[in-house]
Amino acid sequence: MSKWKRYLRLYRVLITQFLKTIMQSKIDFLMGLFGFFFNQIMGIAFLYLVFEQIPSLKGWTLDQLIFIYGFAQIPRGIDHLFTDNIWLVAWRLVLNGDFDRYMLRPMNILFQVIAEKLQPDALGELLIGTILVCRALTKGIVITDALHFVLFFVSILAGALIYTSIKLFFASLAFWLKTSGPFLQMAYEMADFAKYPTEIYAKGIRFLITWVIPFAFVAYLPASYFLKSGTSPGIIGIECGIAAVLWCVAYALFQYGTRIYESAGN
Amino acid sequence: MIKVDHIHKDFVSPKKYPGFRGAVKGLFSNEKVIKKAVDDISFTIEKGEIVGYIGSNGAGKSTTIKMMTGILTPTKGSCEVAGINPSRNRKENAQNIGVVFGQRTQLWWDLPLSESFTILKEIYNVSDEMFQAQMDFLNRVLGLPEFFDRPVRTLSLGQRMRADLGAALLHNPKVLYLDEPTIGLDLVVKDNIRKAIKEINEKYQTTVILTTHDIGDIEELCSRIIIIDEGKKIYDGSLAALKEIYGTKRTVTVEIREPEKVKNLCLAEILGVGQEDCTASFDKESSTLNVTFNKHKIQVPQILSAVMERVEIKDVQIQETELAQIVKEIYNHGMREGS
Amino acid sequence: MGKRLKIYLPFAANEMKRQMAYKGAFYLFILIDLFSSFIRYYLWMAIYGSSGQEVLGGLSRSEMVVYVFMVYVTSSVVMISISTKVSDDVVMGTVAMNLIKPIDYRLSLISQAFGALMYRFLVPCIFIWSGLEIYKVTVLGLTLAGGKEILLYLLSCIMSFMIYVLFDFCFGMIAFFTTYIFGLRLVKEALLGFLTGQLIPISFFPKAVRQVFDFLPFSSMVYTPVMIYLGKYTGSTLMFMLLRQAAWVMILYLLGSLIWKKVTKRLVVLGG
After folding, report:
1. CA B71/CA B63 separation, integer angstroms
2. Taking CB atoms and an 8 Å limit, are B71 and A13 in contact across chains?
3. Closest partner residue to B123 among A103, A107, A265, by Cβ?
C-alpha cells in the first residue's frame, strides 16, 4: 500500500514539474493541440464530401460513421496523453544509452518512462472525439441505457490499454534492434484502418486488424455495439480480454528486453 | 562490499561493410560480429576503499561498471554488490548505489536543480529528516546553493558535475560509481570534486569505484588501482607499485633546425646506455625529435646537451607520461596477476 | 551548368546513400505509406459499391484505382520535405554558417531533395507503378499508359517537385518567426492532403471551392500530374495546366528569394 502511495506521489511530482515547463511555452502547446485537432477535422471533411455522392456506406449513415470516427479518437487520445514517452524508447533512449538512467533507480522502469511526460497535443484528439460523440448523442443515434453507458467507459479504458500495449510491444523490440521506431510507426498507423467499418476491407486485412494488431477492437467493433441495438455486449468483454492478454505479452517482452539491454558506447 | 567473480560480457552486432556498395550488401547480409567487451574479470573490493578502474578507451571499464550497477546483465560469471546480485535484484541494488557518468547527466534537463532533488527524494524514498541532513552536507561539500535554482541545462560543466555528484549521493549510497568524473573540467573544479569525494568517503565509509584517464584523480584519491585492457584484468595492486614501473620512462620532445643532421643520430650510444633505456624517433613533418628514456639512468640535460652539440634547438617540451601509455607498457611487460 | 552540376551533385548522391543506410526502416516506411493508399482504395471500392453509379466525380471505378495509386507514386516522388531541415538549421543557427559558404543554400537543399526523389523513384515507385500497370491491363481491362502520357506525366512531375520544394522552403522559413513549427507542420500536412487532391480528387469539391483552388499552387503539386497521366486533359487544357505549373515554379522561386533576402538581412544585422 505504501508502495502505491509512493508511486502516486512521485507521479504527481513529476507531472507537476512537466506541466510547469509546458506552461512556459503556451503558444507551442496551443499550436500542437490545434495541429492534431485540425488533422481530424480533415478526416471528417473527407466523409462529408464522399456522402455528397452516396446515401450510405455499406449500410452505415454519415452520422454513424462520424460517431465511429470520433469514438476511435478517445482511447487513442488517452493513450497518447499518458504514455507518449514510450515512443522515445523505440526511437532514441535505447540507441543512445539514455535508458541507463531508468535502470539506475530503485523504481519500476516502465513507470519511470511513462511518468516523465504528458503529451498535451493529445487533448486535440480527446477534444474532437468528445465533440463527435456528443454530436452523435444529440442526434439520438447512440443507445443510452445504463449498461451501454457503463460499458462505454469500460471500452474506452480497454481500448486505451490496447493502444498502450501495442506501443509497448513494438517499442520493446528496440532492445534487440537498437531502434524500433519504424516498426512501432507501422503498427501504430494500422490504427487508421479501424476508423472505418472493417467490412469494407479484404478478408486478410480484416483478420489482421481484428486479431493480430487488434485495432478493430479499439474503434469500429465497440462503436458498433453502441450504435446497433441487438449487438451482444460480449464484444466489450472480448475487447477487455484482448487488452489484458496484450498487456501481459507486451509487458513481459519489455521486462525481458531490459534484461538483455546493452546500453551504448560500445 | 563488492565481489566480482569471473565475469564476462559479449556484444553481438551485425557486420557492416564500407562504402556505397557495402550499404547495398548490408541490406542482404546477416553476418554477426562478437566482441568480448569483458573477458573473465574477478576482483573483490572492501568497504570504504577507493579504487581506480583504469584502461584505454574501449577496454571494458564502462561495461564492467554497468554490470555492477545492474544496467547490463553479465553473459557469464556473477557479481555481488553489498550482498545483492545487481541484475537480478535491480531495484534493491539501485537503492544501495550512486552513479555518476561524466559524459551524461542523470538529472532532469529542463528542471531547476532544486526540483531534481525533490524528485530524487521521492524516487529513493528519503525521509524528510534525512533529506535535510544530507542536503546540508552536500550543499557544504559541493557548493550547490550557488546554482540551486537554475535549470540543469544552463549549468556549466563543472557545476553540472557537482550537481550530478550530489544527486548520486542524496540517498547516501553504500557504493559510489564514478565514470570519468573530472573529464573536461578545469584544475580548480577538479580539485574541488576530488576533495568532495574524499570527504564523503571519510564521513560515510562509502566505497568508491572510479574510472578515469586523469592521473591526478588516481594520485589524489585511489589507494588501489585495477587496470584492464581488451576486456582482461592486467593489473590489480597499489599505486606505489605501479609508479615503480611507469615512473622510469619519460619523453622529451625537441624541435630542431636543420633536421637532416640528426637523421642517423644514435643517442643511446653517445650517452653510453643500452638501447632499451633511450630511444629516439624523428618526425619529419614537424622536425621534432622524440626521445623516450629511463629517468633513473639519464637526465634531461644530458640529452639536451648531446643534441645541442650537433644541431640548433628551437623548442623543448617534457611530457608527463600518459596513463594510457602506462597501461600499454604494463601490458607489453606481460605483468599479469592471478592468471 | 556543368560546373554547377559538379558542385551540387554530391548533395544528391549523399542523400541517396544516406537513405540506403536505413535499410529496414526504409522498407517499412514504404509499407506505412502504402497503408493509407490501401485504406483509400477499399474505401473507394465500398463507396462505388454503395452509390450504384459507375462514375463519381468524373472518374470511373477503374480510374479511381489508378488515381489512388498514382497519387501515392506521385506524392512520394514529388513531396520531399525540406522544411524540417530548414527549420532545424534556423533553430541551430547553422543557416548563418551557410552564408559564408560559396554555395546557394536553397539550391543545395533542392539538390538533396532531388537525390531523395531519384531514390524513391527507383526503389518503391517504379515497382508500384509497374505493378499498377500490370493490374490495370490484366484485372481492370484498361490499356497500358501511352508513351506520350508517360512523358507528359514525368514533365509535370518535375514541375510539381519544384513547386513543392520551393513552397516547403518558404514554409521552413517560418521558423525564423516562431520556434515551434511542429504543430504548424501537422496543419500543413493535413491541409496539403486535402488541397493537393491526395485524399480525394479535387473534382469532388463543390464548384465554388474548386474555383478558389484554381488560384492556389496546391492542385499543381499532385492532382495535375495524375490527371495528365489518366489522360483527362487534352489539347489546350493540357497546355494550360503545364503552363500554370511553370508559372507557379517561377512565382514560388521569386517568393523564396524574397524571403531569403529579408531573412539573411536580419541575420546579418542580428548575428543569427
Report:
1. 9
2. no
3. A107
Are C179 and A38 a contacting pair at CB < 8 A? no
CATH value of B248-320 in 3.40.50.1220, 3.40.50.1010, 3.30.70.270, 3.30.70.100: 3.30.70.100
How far apart are the C-alpha atoms of A49 and C137, rounded to whole Å? 30
Q: Which of residues 233-262 of A touch B (CB under 8 A)?
A: 259-262
What residue spans define the domains of chain C?
Answer: 2-270
Instruction: Yes or no: say if A100 and A10 are a contact pair by the CB < 8 Å rule.
Output: no
Mean pLDDT, 10 residues at a time, chain C of 272 residues? 63 62 68 87 93 90 94 92 84 73 84 88 87 89 86 95 95 79 81 91 93 93 95 92 96 94 73 48
Is pLDDT of A266 > 50? no
> Is A27 touching C (CB cutoff 8 A)?
yes
Q: What is the pLDDT of residue A38?
A: 84
Q: Is residue A162 part of a domain?
A: yes
Q: Say if A34 falls within a structural domain.
A: yes
Task: Give A202-242 as a DSSP string.
Answer: -HHHHHIIIIIS-GGGTTHHHHHHHHSTT--THHHHHHHHH
Which of these CATH numbers, 3.40.50.11540, 3.30.70.1270, 3.40.1620.10, 3.40.50.300, describes B2-244?
Answer: 3.40.50.300
C-alpha distances (whole Å) from C77 to each of C21, C123, C138, C191 are 19, 11, 26, 19
Best to test chain C binding among B17, B20, B29 (most C CBs inside 10 Å): B20
According to DSSP, residue A56 is labeled -
Angle (nearest 5°) at CA C94 between C91 and C95? 90
Chain B residues with CB-CB distance to C123 below 8 A: none
Q: Where in chain B is the domain with CATH 3.40.50.300?
A: 2-244
| pLDDT tier, B338 (very low <50, low <70, confident <90, very high otherwise) | very low
**Residue numbers in A near B92 (CB within 8 A):** 106
Long-range contacts of B293-300 (CB under 8 A, 24+ apart): B293/B249, B293/B250, B293/B251, B293/B252, B294/B248, B294/B249, B295/B247, B295/B248, B295/B249, B295/B250, B296/B248, B297/B273, B298/B271, B298/B273, B300/B250, B300/B252
**What is the radius of gyration, based on Cα positions, of chain B?**
24
Specify whether the CB–CB gap between A98 and A92 falls below 8 A. yes
The residues with which B233 forms a beta bridge, in sequence order, are B228
Compute chain A's Rg from CA coordinates.
20
Tell me if A193 and C194 make a contact (CB, 8 A cut-off): no
SS3 for B319? Answer: strand
In chain A, the number of structural domains is 1
Enumerate neighbours of A (3 or more CB pairs within 8 A). Answer: B, C
In a domain, A12, yes or no: no
Q: How confident is the model at residue B331 (pLDDT cuts 50, 70, 90)?
A: low
Q: Which of residues 194-233 of A touch C (CB under 8 A)?
A: 196, 200-202, 205
Q: Give the mean pLDDT of chain B.
A: 84
pLDDT digits (tens, 9 = 90+) for C180-213: 677 788 888 888 988 999 999 999 999 999 999 9
pLDDT (tens digit, 9 = 90+) per residue, A122-160? 888 899 999 999 999 999 999 989 999 999 999 999 999
Locate CATH 3.30.70.100 in chain B.
Answer: 248-320
Compute the nearest-CA separation of B201 from chain A (Å). 21
Cβ–Cβ gap A39/C187 under 8 Å: yes
Span A88-128, pLDDT tens digits:
999 889 988 889 999 999 999 999 999 988 888 888 889 99
In a 10 Å sphere around its CB, with 0-12 CB exposed, 13-18 middle and 19+ buried, how is residue B83 labelled?
exposed
Q: For residues B14 and A149, what is the distance between their CA atoms, to the nearest angstrom?
A: 53
* Residue A35 is assigned to a structural domain of this protein: yes
Contact C50 A42 (CB under 8 A): no
The residue range of the domain holding A65 is 25-260
